[in-house]
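Tokens as discussed.
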């Protein structure tokens, strides 16, 4: 990283913490993300950013679909680790949590989750080490009321770290 970039400045940006999931040929996989934002209102479109080497990225590209599970503030760090620090190529993440299949056929984690959103991919843009997926929302459901987990609380309150492939892994050195 360049000497003129203070990662503490980037840490002031506001992020949420989500599970992005997909399914392809009977295999479900998902991962923790924080790089997610709504882009438009009509139609509702969102952007999500994933490391190009991740298994979830491969499956999203093949399926052309992904889902978002919005995590609640009360989620335990151990649960986040299930989706954030293990590769789905060798481990069935969905065998370790509660989930349902959404109306569009995608897995939605229901444990520690406030809302579930299903999207179809409209475009993919490569950005150095990552791929930016633009998706159109096909369905969205509120599972329960509560406070969403912010990335700041993940780091400050839960003392969580970012995996090496996360766009915000630079935050690991800020403590």
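Sequence:
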């Amino acid at each position: 990283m360049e000497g003129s970039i203070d990662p503490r400045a980037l840490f002031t940006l506001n992020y949420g913490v989500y599970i992005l999931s997909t399914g392809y040929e009977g295999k479900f996989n998902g991962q923790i993300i924080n790089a997610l934002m709504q882009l438009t209102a009509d139609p509702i479109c969102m952007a999500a950013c994933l490391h190009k080497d991740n298994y979830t990225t491969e499956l999203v590209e093949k399926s052309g679909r992904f889902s978002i599970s919005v995590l609640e503030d009360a989620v335990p760090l151990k649960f986040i680790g299930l989706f954030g620090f293990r590769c789905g190529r060798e481990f069935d993440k969905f065998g370790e949590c509660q989930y349902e299949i959404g109306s569009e056929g995608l897995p939605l984690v229901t444990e520690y989750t406030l809302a579930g959103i299903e999207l179809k991919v409209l475009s993919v843009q490569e950005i150095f080490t990552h791929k930016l997926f633009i998706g159109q929302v096909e369905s969205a459901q509120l599972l329960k009321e509560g406070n969403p987990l912010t990335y700041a609380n993940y780091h400050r309150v839960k003392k969580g770290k970012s995996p090496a492939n996360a766009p915000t892994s630079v935050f690991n050195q800020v403590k």
